[in-house]
Amino acid sequence: MRRLTLASAGFLALLSGSAWAADLGADLPMTAPGFDWTGYYAGMQAGYGWGRSDITV
User: Fold this and answer.
1) How far from 32 is each of 28, 35, 36, CA to CA, in Å?
2) Cα(15)–Cα(13) distance, integer angstroms
3) In whole angstroms, what is the distance from residue 48 CA to residue 57 CA?
4) What confidence tens digit (pLDDT) does each residue in 19-33 have?
5) Whole-angstrom Cα distance, residue 9 to residue 16?
């Protein structure tokens, strides 16, 4: 019984392997790459502000 089970499992494995070979991938067209956020960035938020305020409550 064990030999029959092993033979059946091997036979089914061979049959299922050929099903994967039938699904050949189609060549997809090349697309433009998306924007790449890995560049240099210097956050130079330099500025000066002045003003006068007179708050009365």
Assistant:
1) 13, 9, 12
2) 5
3) 28
4) 555 566 777 788 887
5) 11
Structure tokens at 18: 């050929």
Whole-structure pTM value: 0.31
Burial code (b: 16+ CB inside 10 Å, e: under 16) for 16-26 equals eeeeeeeeeee
Query: Tokens for 26?
Result: 């189609």
The answer to whether residue 18 scores a pLDDT higher than 90 is: no
CA gyration radius, the chain: 35
- Extract the tokens encoding 40: 């240099």
Number of H helices, E strands in the chain: 1, 0
Q: What is the token pair recorded at 35?
A: 């924007």
